Amino acid sequence: MNNYKFKFWHYGLILTLCAAGLITYNLEASDKSYFLGGEATHGHHQLELACTTCHGDGFAGEAFIQQACVGCHSEELEDANDSHPRTKFLDPRNANLLKQLDARQCVACHTEHKPEITHDMGVTLASDFCVHCHSDIAENRPNHAEFTFDSCASAGCHNYHDNRYLHEEFLAARIGASDLVANGQLPVRNLVARWKQANPQRHSLSRNDADMTFPGVPEDTSAGIIQQWATSTHAQTDTNCSGCHVDEKMTFTSAEIVELCGSCHVDQRENFTQGKHGLRLSPATPETFRKITGAMTPAEAVIPMKETSGKPLSCTSCHYAHETDTRYAAVEACLGCHNDEHSLAYRSSAHFKAWQADSETGVSCANCHMPRETHGDRVVINHNQNHNLRPNEKMLPVCLNCHGVEFSVSALADEQLLENNFSQSVTNRHDTFRLIRERITKKTSSK
Amino acid sequence: MRKSAFIFAAIAALAGCGEKSGIEPERMADAIFSVIEADRASYTNFVVNRLANEEQVIKADEHWKDNKALPLPAQMMRMGAERVAEQEAGFNYALLSQWAINKQNKPRTDLEQQGLQFINDNPGKNFYGTETLGDTEYFTAIYPDVAVSPACVSCHNEHVDSPRTDFELGETMGGVVIRFPM
């Protein structure tokens, strides 16, 4: 053996085999990170190692990728009354336009893994993309001649997909409202009241009804927990210890918590796993991926987070398990992790001062970012905190509860106000209202 | 040998049948148009004109979803056209006009331009032609879209974005374009 002479190509072979082994291990048994072709956008970075979600077996073509986009985003686009749905481009009369920009495919504008050319909203086209089809806009709307094409979709006037709260009639119907609406208020939450109405035969529970003992837990700790539970909405709605601690289970992973809470709070779980807090637990990702990675930790975020924030995110990151006071979840929980300028400026904002004085009329982080949505007679808190930021005009229905439309649109389009959390007055009124006023005059005279 | 000759003959006969039962594109387009036109006139007369103009119980509005209103006749037709396109039914159709409220409905191809002009100049006549769009050749038929109801006229004449304010009942307001790949 000692005499065996390694030839140069033997080393080559061994090296190649080692490399192949490592790469295969990474692909088949580990996190596939060697195969990442460039960082994913902030919207997808949590899922960048769930390759098969978008790429299938790796050889799946364009149609599969398109279906993957639609699979997660179609509901949102439908709700948004998408101004440019794929169906709009299927008519062959668009053939020439499609040669310039194939608007039938999401990836024509949103190419993934290209951080160097990715703009807001994950758009990878130059920001004047509207020009491809609307170059003649000034012919039909002479007052648009003064604007550049890179401002159409970036100045808070139009969006490519969602124009629900920006279209002319919406703004015209609300123009002229005062900046602060008298007695403005958010929809009143009604989950517990509705539960009581639907379950008249069930009763509130009290301390003595707790159906669990806590083996191995010190007496005063368990008494404290029971006390918290007894004053919670869970006790009010006949939800006993064993409802969550099935078979006396005492420790849960983040995925188990989300699953457990979600078994009753179905909408909340769905929305939570659509937003960035819970995206990794989304049922759209492969089960093996969910098992390997679990939920995201704040440290993995791409926006600034406090160093103290460590554990994988779940319902109990913001809501205490036994106490259901949502005041903590609505402000302190957010500020426990988020460390960007907007978050840090919140405590000096008028919204926070009002919240400190009275949490019914004040404005918490959650009031804007987890809006109360009315579905029939249900008021549901949307637990996808990213929903109304893509793009931020989606937040208008929240603002309009308390503010006029000119004030709100102007504020949402002002970078500086966004950064300082609306800590200054809204002085730059949005140009869109000058144009709307012109249209209103023109309309009245055309009838 | 006999067998293969038989199979060959059978295939030839079947292929022949296929050809015989084929419908001329013009007749096919006419048939499709009559369905589109019938639905469109019924919707405008018995839904929009009745409810919005005569009984005044609900409005027809471009933002029908937000405003809990009726879709406009043109939108109703486009919904159908988009659904057909999505199902890859083998043809497409669209409602266009030289005096379009929505500028995306202005003629875009040379043949559309030519056809819309033809149906305006020749009331009651249809226009047929072929054109190449992208890499595909199409049979294109264009039919007059006539103001069949007072609702058509009043709404277009009063619309802020309408380039014409003098439409009259019975007049051609635009054209329905039907296309098949050849």
Highlighted features:
heterodimer, A: about 450 residues, mainly alpha, 2 domains, 23 helices, B: about 180 residues, alpha+beta, 4-stranded antiparallel β-sheet, 4 strands, globular
Question: How is this structure best described in words?
Answer:
The complex is a heterodimer of chains A (447) and B (182). Chain A is mostly helical and 447 residues long. Chain A has helices spanning 8-28, 51-55, 62-79, 95-100, 131-134, 137-140, 168-174, 191-198, 219-230, 233-236, 241-244, 254-264, 266-272, 287-293, 315-318, 326-337, 341-345, 350-357, 365-369, 396-399, 405-412, 415-419, 432-446; strands spanning 372-375, 378-381. Chain A folds into two domains: 49-165, no CATH class; 191-431, no CATH class. In chain A, strands 1-2 form a two-stranded antiparallel ribbon. In chain A, helix 12 (254-264) packs across helix 13 (266-272). Chain B has 182 residues and is of the alpha+beta class. Chain B has one domain (3-181). Chain B has helices spanning 2-21, 25-54, 73-86, 110-121, 150-158, and strands at residues 92-96, 127-133, 136-146, 172-181. Chain B has a four-stranded antiparallel sheet with strand order 1-4-3-2, with helices on both faces. In chain B, helix 2 (25-54) packs antiparallel against helix 3. The chains are: A mainly alpha (447), B alpha+beta (182). The A-B interface holds A 81, 85, 87-88, 90-96, 98-99, 136, 140, 164, 167, 169-170, 439, 442-443, 446-447 and B 61-63, 65-67, 81-83, 85-86, 92, 94, 103, 108-109, 112, 133-134, 136, 138, 158-161, 165, 177, 179, 181.
